[in-house]
Amino acid sequence: MALCSVGRPLLQNTRHALGWFFKQKQTFCCKVHDSQEEEIRKKLQLFPGGSIDLQKQESGIAVMTVNNPARMNAFSGSMMTELEERVCELETWTEGKGLIVQGAAGTFCSGSDLNAVRAISNPQDGMKMCMFMQKTLTRLLRLPLISVALVEGKALGGGAELTTACDFRLMTSDAMIQFVHKHMGLVPGWGGAARLVRIVGSQNALKLLAGSRKVDPDFGKQIGLVDDVLTVGEGNTLVDTERWLSQFTKGSAPVIRAVKKVVLSGRELSLDEALTTERHVFGTVWGGPANLEALARKTKHK
Ligand SMILES: CCC(=O)SCCNC(=O)CCNC(=O)[C@H](O)C(C)(C)COP(=O)(O)OP(=O)(O)OC[C@H]1O[C@@H](n2cnc3c(N)ncnc32)[C@H](O)[C@@H]1OP(=O)(O)O
Known about the structure:
Blueprint: H1 10-23, H2 26-31, H3 35-44, E1 51-56, E2 61-67, H4 77-91, E3 98-103, H5 114-119, H6 123-141, E4 146-151, E5 154-156, H7 158-163, E6 168-172, E7 176-178, H8 192-210, H9 217-223, E8 228-230, H10 237-249, H11 253-268, H12 271-285, H13 289-296
Parallel strand pairs: 2-3, 3-4, 4-6, 5-7, 6-8
Antiparallel strand pairs: 1-2
Helix pairs in contact: 3-6, 4-6, 11-12
The protein binds propionyl Coenzyme A.
Protein backbone atom coordinates (compact mmCIF):
# COMPACT_ATOMS: atom_id res chain seq x y z
CA MET A 1 0.00 0.00 0.00
CA ALA A 2 1.36 3.44 -0.90
CA LEU A 3 1.67 6.25 1.63
CA CYS A 4 -1.60 8.00 0.79
CA SER A 5 -3.64 5.61 -1.26
CA VAL A 6 -6.26 7.16 -3.53
CA GLY A 7 -9.63 7.49 -1.83
CA ARG A 8 -8.40 7.34 1.78
CA PRO A 9 -9.94 10.18 3.80
CA LEU A 10 -7.71 13.25 4.12
CA LEU A 11 -7.35 13.24 7.93
CA GLN A 12 -6.46 9.57 7.92
CA ASN A 13 -3.95 10.28 5.15
CA THR A 14 -2.40 13.07 7.20
CA ARG A 15 -2.10 10.89 10.31
CA HIS A 16 -0.62 8.07 8.28
CA ALA A 17 1.77 10.42 6.56
CA LEU A 18 2.90 12.07 9.76
CA GLY A 19 3.15 8.74 11.60
CA TRP A 20 5.36 7.52 8.85
CA PHE A 21 7.20 10.81 8.80
CA PHE A 22 8.11 10.80 12.45
CA LYS A 23 9.11 7.15 12.51
CA GLN A 24 11.32 7.97 9.52
CA LYS A 25 10.47 4.82 7.61
CA GLN A 26 10.93 6.67 4.38
CA THR A 27 12.12 3.71 2.35
CA PHE A 28 8.70 2.10 2.74
CA CYS A 29 6.99 4.91 0.88
CA CYS A 30 9.62 5.07 -1.82
CA LYS A 31 9.53 1.45 -2.81
CA VAL A 32 5.88 0.49 -2.61
CA HIS A 33 3.34 1.78 -5.10
CA ASP A 34 -0.23 0.77 -5.67
CA SER A 35 -1.48 -0.36 -9.07
CA GLN A 36 -3.39 2.85 -9.81
CA GLU A 37 -0.25 4.86 -9.22
CA GLU A 38 1.74 2.52 -11.41
CA GLU A 39 -0.81 2.98 -14.19
CA ILE A 40 -0.64 6.79 -14.13
CA ARG A 41 3.15 6.65 -13.84
CA LYS A 42 3.30 4.59 -17.05
CA LYS A 43 0.91 6.96 -18.78
CA LEU A 44 2.88 10.04 -17.73
CA GLN A 45 6.07 8.50 -19.05
CA LEU A 46 4.51 8.49 -22.52
CA PHE A 47 5.07 12.28 -22.49
CA PRO A 48 8.84 12.71 -22.17
CA GLY A 49 11.02 15.80 -22.17
CA GLY A 50 13.08 17.82 -19.74
CA SER A 51 14.27 16.60 -16.34
CA ILE A 52 14.14 17.29 -12.63
CA ASP A 53 17.73 17.63 -11.46
CA LEU A 54 18.83 17.24 -7.87
CA GLN A 55 22.12 18.22 -6.33
CA LYS A 56 22.64 17.30 -2.67
CA GLN A 57 25.45 19.41 -1.25
CA GLU A 58 27.75 18.72 1.70
CA SER A 59 26.38 21.85 3.36
CA GLY A 60 23.09 19.98 3.86
CA ILE A 61 21.35 22.18 1.27
CA ALA A 62 19.98 20.48 -1.85
CA VAL A 63 19.14 22.28 -5.09
CA MET A 64 16.30 20.89 -7.20
CA THR A 65 16.01 22.31 -10.72
CA VAL A 66 12.96 22.11 -12.98
CA ASN A 67 14.75 21.77 -16.28
CA ASN A 68 12.87 22.08 -19.57
CA PRO A 69 13.95 25.49 -20.92
CA ALA A 70 12.63 24.91 -24.47
CA ARG A 71 9.14 24.96 -22.91
CA MET A 72 9.77 27.55 -20.22
CA ASN A 73 10.32 24.66 -17.74
CA ALA A 74 6.80 23.26 -18.26
CA PHE A 75 6.24 19.87 -16.58
CA SER A 76 6.25 17.03 -19.11
CA GLY A 77 4.78 13.70 -17.95
CA SER A 78 8.22 12.18 -17.34
CA MET A 79 9.19 15.23 -15.25
CA MET A 80 6.18 14.57 -13.00
CA THR A 81 7.41 11.03 -12.30
CA GLU A 82 11.00 12.29 -11.90
CA LEU A 83 9.80 14.84 -9.36
CA GLU A 84 8.36 12.01 -7.29
CA GLU A 85 11.65 10.09 -7.53
CA ARG A 86 13.61 13.14 -6.37
CA VAL A 87 11.24 13.64 -3.44
CA CYS A 88 11.82 9.98 -2.48
CA GLU A 89 15.55 10.61 -2.61
CA LEU A 90 15.18 13.60 -0.31
CA GLU A 91 12.98 11.65 2.11
CA THR A 92 15.90 9.30 2.75
CA TRP A 93 18.59 12.02 2.93
CA THR A 94 19.13 12.06 6.68
CA GLU A 95 21.93 14.68 6.57
CA GLY A 96 19.74 17.22 4.77
CA LYS A 97 18.67 20.54 6.29
CA GLY A 98 17.42 22.71 3.44
CA LEU A 99 16.13 22.63 -0.13
CA ILE A 100 16.08 25.24 -2.88
CA VAL A 101 13.62 24.66 -5.74
CA GLN A 102 14.43 26.64 -8.87
CA GLY A 103 13.84 26.65 -12.62
CA ALA A 104 16.56 26.35 -15.27
CA ALA A 105 17.73 29.22 -17.49
CA GLY A 106 16.36 32.13 -15.51
CA THR A 107 12.66 31.25 -15.32
CA PHE A 108 10.76 29.17 -12.76
CA CYS A 109 8.08 27.00 -14.43
CA SER A 110 5.16 27.53 -16.83
CA GLY A 111 2.98 24.77 -15.32
CA SER A 112 2.06 21.53 -16.97
CA ASP A 113 3.21 20.89 -20.52
CA LEU A 114 0.22 21.89 -22.62
CA ASN A 115 1.04 19.19 -25.20
CA ALA A 116 0.67 16.50 -22.54
CA VAL A 117 -2.41 18.24 -21.12
CA ARG A 118 -4.11 18.13 -24.54
CA ALA A 119 -3.32 14.42 -24.90
CA ILE A 120 -4.77 13.49 -21.48
CA SER A 121 -7.65 15.98 -21.45
CA ASN A 122 -10.24 13.28 -20.58
CA PRO A 123 -11.53 13.53 -16.97
CA GLN A 124 -10.21 10.11 -15.84
CA ASP A 125 -6.60 10.77 -16.85
CA GLY A 126 -6.80 14.36 -15.63
CA MET A 127 -7.96 13.16 -12.21
CA LYS A 128 -5.15 10.58 -11.96
CA MET A 129 -2.51 13.15 -12.95
CA CYS A 130 -3.95 15.58 -10.40
CA MET A 131 -3.85 12.90 -7.62
CA PHE A 132 -0.27 12.00 -8.53
CA MET A 133 0.96 15.61 -8.42
CA GLN A 134 -1.06 16.41 -5.28
CA LYS A 135 0.57 13.53 -3.42
CA THR A 136 4.04 14.35 -4.68
CA LEU A 137 3.78 18.04 -3.75
CA THR A 138 2.32 17.16 -0.33
CA ARG A 139 5.36 14.95 0.28
CA LEU A 140 7.63 17.76 -0.93
CA LEU A 141 6.11 20.17 1.59
CA ARG A 142 6.38 17.55 4.37
CA LEU A 143 10.09 16.88 3.85
CA PRO A 144 12.04 17.43 7.09
CA LEU A 145 13.97 20.16 5.25
CA ILE A 146 13.43 23.91 5.24
CA SER A 147 12.52 24.63 1.65
CA VAL A 148 12.47 27.78 -0.45
CA ALA A 149 11.28 28.39 -4.01
CA LEU A 150 13.60 30.71 -5.91
CA VAL A 151 11.26 32.39 -8.41
CA GLU A 152 13.01 34.01 -11.36
CA GLY A 153 11.10 34.92 -14.52
CA LYS A 154 7.63 33.39 -14.45
CA ALA A 155 5.81 30.88 -12.24
CA LEU A 156 2.54 30.12 -14.02
CA GLY A 157 -0.30 27.64 -13.35
CA GLY A 158 1.21 24.47 -11.90
CA GLY A 159 4.47 26.43 -11.54
CA ALA A 160 2.70 28.84 -9.15
CA GLU A 161 1.31 25.78 -7.32
CA LEU A 162 4.81 24.36 -6.98
CA THR A 163 5.97 27.52 -5.17
CA THR A 164 3.30 26.91 -2.49
CA ALA A 165 4.75 23.46 -1.77
CA CYS A 166 7.84 25.16 -0.29
CA ASP A 167 8.10 26.74 3.16
CA PHE A 168 9.32 30.07 1.74
CA ARG A 169 9.30 31.94 -1.57
CA LEU A 170 11.96 34.37 -2.81
CA MET A 171 11.39 36.38 -5.99
CA THR A 172 13.83 38.29 -8.12
CA SER A 173 12.72 41.89 -8.63
CA ASP A 174 11.51 41.23 -12.21
CA ALA A 175 9.73 37.94 -11.51
CA MET A 176 6.02 37.19 -11.60
CA ILE A 177 3.76 34.52 -10.10
CA GLN A 178 0.34 33.97 -11.65
CA PHE A 179 -2.31 31.33 -11.03
CA VAL A 180 -3.49 31.35 -14.66
CA HIS A 181 -5.82 28.37 -14.13
CA LYS A 182 -9.03 30.39 -14.55
CA HIS A 183 -7.85 31.60 -17.96
CA MET A 184 -7.35 27.92 -18.84
CA GLY A 185 -10.87 26.99 -17.66
CA LEU A 186 -9.40 25.26 -14.60
CA VAL A 187 -8.81 25.55 -10.90
CA PRO A 188 -5.58 24.40 -9.23
CA GLY A 189 -5.47 20.61 -8.84
CA TRP A 190 -1.97 20.02 -7.50
CA GLY A 191 -2.99 21.17 -3.99
CA GLY A 192 -2.11 24.78 -4.82
CA ALA A 193 -5.46 26.29 -3.76
CA ALA A 194 -5.50 24.57 -0.35
CA ARG A 195 -1.92 25.62 0.35
CA LEU A 196 -2.45 29.15 -1.00
CA VAL A 197 -5.37 29.76 1.40
CA ARG A 198 -3.15 28.71 4.30
CA ILE A 199 -0.37 31.04 3.17
CA VAL A 200 -2.25 34.23 2.21
CA GLY A 201 -5.77 33.70 3.66
CA SER A 202 -9.00 33.13 1.75
CA GLN A 203 -9.58 36.77 0.68
CA ASN A 204 -6.21 37.06 -1.00
CA ALA A 205 -6.46 33.52 -2.41
CA LEU A 206 -9.76 34.50 -4.04
CA LYS A 207 -8.11 37.54 -5.61
CA LEU A 208 -5.29 35.44 -7.00
CA LEU A 209 -7.46 32.57 -8.25
CA ALA A 210 -10.70 34.29 -9.32
CA GLY A 211 -8.88 37.31 -10.76
CA SER A 212 -5.84 35.39 -12.03
CA ARG A 213 -4.04 38.42 -10.66
CA LYS A 214 -0.37 38.81 -11.48
CA VAL A 215 1.77 38.81 -8.36
CA ASP A 216 4.87 40.98 -8.60
CA PRO A 217 7.36 41.04 -5.70
CA ASP A 218 5.76 44.09 -4.00
CA PHE A 219 2.24 42.66 -4.05
CA GLY A 220 3.62 39.24 -3.11
CA LYS A 221 5.29 40.67 -0.01
CA GLN A 222 2.19 42.69 0.88
CA ILE A 223 -0.04 39.59 0.99
CA GLY A 224 2.58 37.33 2.58
CA LEU A 225 3.12 35.07 -0.42
CA VAL A 226 6.69 36.26 -0.90
CA ASP A 227 9.23 36.32 1.91
CA ASP A 228 11.97 38.39 0.29
CA VAL A 229 13.07 39.97 -2.97
CA LEU A 230 16.44 39.57 -4.68
CA THR A 231 17.62 42.45 -6.83
CA VAL A 232 18.33 41.35 -10.39
CA GLY A 233 21.86 41.94 -11.64
CA GLU A 234 23.40 42.07 -8.17
CA GLY A 235 25.37 38.83 -7.83
CA ASN A 236 24.29 35.25 -8.29
CA THR A 237 20.67 34.57 -7.32
CA LEU A 238 21.31 30.94 -6.32
CA VAL A 239 24.21 31.94 -4.07
CA ASP A 240 22.04 34.74 -2.61
CA THR A 241 19.26 32.22 -1.96
CA GLU A 242 21.67 29.82 -0.25
CA ARG A 243 22.86 32.71 1.94
CA TRP A 244 19.24 33.67 2.73
CA LEU A 245 18.32 30.09 3.61
CA SER A 246 21.40 29.64 5.81
CA GLN A 247 19.86 31.91 8.47
CA PHE A 248 17.47 28.97 9.12
CA THR A 249 19.72 26.01 8.34
CA LYS A 250 22.82 26.97 10.31
CA GLY A 251 23.52 24.38 13.03
CA SER A 252 22.88 20.73 13.67
CA ALA A 253 20.81 18.76 11.17
CA PRO A 254 18.77 16.86 13.80
CA VAL A 255 17.73 20.16 15.41
CA ILE A 256 16.80 21.87 12.11
CA ARG A 257 14.82 18.78 11.06
CA ALA A 258 13.12 18.69 14.46
CA VAL A 259 12.08 22.34 14.03
CA LYS A 260 10.47 21.55 10.67
CA LYS A 261 8.66 18.54 12.20
CA VAL A 262 7.09 20.51 15.06
CA VAL A 263 6.00 23.33 12.74
CA LEU A 264 4.56 20.82 10.28
CA SER A 265 2.61 18.97 12.95
CA GLY A 266 1.34 22.31 14.34
CA ARG A 267 0.13 23.21 10.86
CA GLU A 268 -1.44 19.88 9.92
CA LEU A 269 -2.67 18.13 13.08
CA SER A 270 -5.24 18.85 15.77
CA LEU A 271 -3.82 20.62 18.84
CA ASP A 272 -3.81 17.42 20.92
CA GLU A 273 -2.07 15.45 18.20
CA ALA A 274 0.41 18.27 17.56
CA LEU A 275 1.25 18.45 21.28
CA THR A 276 1.88 14.70 21.37
CA THR A 277 4.13 14.97 18.33
CA GLU A 278 5.95 17.95 19.83
CA ARG A 279 6.72 15.92 22.99
CA HIS A 280 7.98 13.07 20.87
CA VAL A 281 10.21 15.33 18.73
CA PHE A 282 11.44 17.17 21.85
CA GLY A 283 12.58 13.80 23.20
CA THR A 284 14.75 13.28 20.13
CA VAL A 285 16.82 16.45 20.71
CA TRP A 286 16.80 16.75 24.55
CA GLY A 287 20.21 15.63 25.78
CA GLY A 288 21.37 15.23 22.19
CA PRO A 289 24.82 16.34 20.97
CA ALA A 290 23.74 19.90 20.06
CA ASN A 291 21.94 20.32 23.38
CA LEU A 292 24.91 19.04 25.41
CA GLU A 293 27.36 21.21 23.47
CA ALA A 294 25.24 24.32 24.10
CA LEU A 295 25.10 23.51 27.82
CA ALA A 296 28.88 22.97 27.98
CA ARG A 297 29.45 26.33 26.21
CA LYS A 298 27.32 28.09 28.84
CA THR A 299 25.63 29.88 25.93
CA LYS A 300 24.41 33.42 26.64
CA HIS A 301 21.72 34.85 24.33
CA LYS A 302 22.80 38.50 24.22
C1 LIG B 1 -1.70 22.63 -13.67
C2 LIG B 1 -2.38 23.52 -14.65
C3 LIG B 1 -1.42 24.21 -15.60
O1 LIG B 1 -0.27 24.35 -15.29
S1 LIG B 1 -2.06 24.74 -17.07
C4 LIG B 1 -0.68 25.41 -17.91
C5 LIG B 1 -0.50 26.84 -17.56
N1 LIG B 1 0.55 27.44 -18.31
C6 LIG B 1 0.35 28.10 -19.44
O2 LIG B 1 -0.75 28.22 -19.93
C7 LIG B 1 1.59 28.72 -20.04
C8 LIG B 1 1.38 29.10 -21.50
N2 LIG B 1 2.56 29.78 -21.98
C9 LIG B 1 2.71 31.11 -21.93
O3 LIG B 1 1.86 31.85 -21.46
C10 LIG B 1 3.99 31.66 -22.54
O4 LIG B 1 4.60 30.67 -23.33
C11 LIG B 1 4.99 32.14 -21.45
C12 LIG B 1 5.29 31.04 -20.43
C13 LIG B 1 4.45 33.38 -20.75
C14 LIG B 1 6.33 32.50 -22.13
O5 LIG B 1 6.09 33.44 -23.14
P1 LIG B 1 7.28 33.89 -24.10
O6 LIG B 1 8.42 34.37 -23.26
O7 LIG B 1 6.71 34.80 -25.10
O8 LIG B 1 7.79 32.55 -24.76
P2 LIG B 1 6.99 31.57 -25.75
O9 LIG B 1 5.53 31.69 -25.57
O10 LIG B 1 7.54 31.76 -27.10
O11 LIG B 1 7.44 30.16 -25.13
C15 LIG B 1 8.67 29.55 -25.48
C16 LIG B 1 8.33 28.13 -25.86
O12 LIG B 1 7.86 27.48 -24.67
C17 LIG B 1 6.62 26.84 -24.95
N3 LIG B 1 5.82 26.79 -23.74
C18 LIG B 1 5.67 27.73 -22.81
N4 LIG B 1 4.86 27.31 -21.84
C19 LIG B 1 4.51 26.05 -22.16
C20 LIG B 1 3.68 25.06 -21.54
N5 LIG B 1 3.08 25.27 -20.36
N6 LIG B 1 3.54 23.89 -22.15
C21 LIG B 1 4.16 23.63 -23.33
N7 LIG B 1 4.96 24.53 -23.95
C22 LIG B 1 5.12 25.71 -23.38
C23 LIG B 1 5.98 27.71 -26.03
O13 LIG B 1 4.99 27.00 -26.70
C24 LIG B 1 7.20 28.02 -26.87
O14 LIG B 1 7.48 26.90 -27.67
P3 LIG B 1 7.87 27.08 -29.23
O15 LIG B 1 9.15 27.87 -29.21
O16 LIG B 1 6.73 27.82 -29.86
O17 LIG B 1 8.03 25.68 -29.72
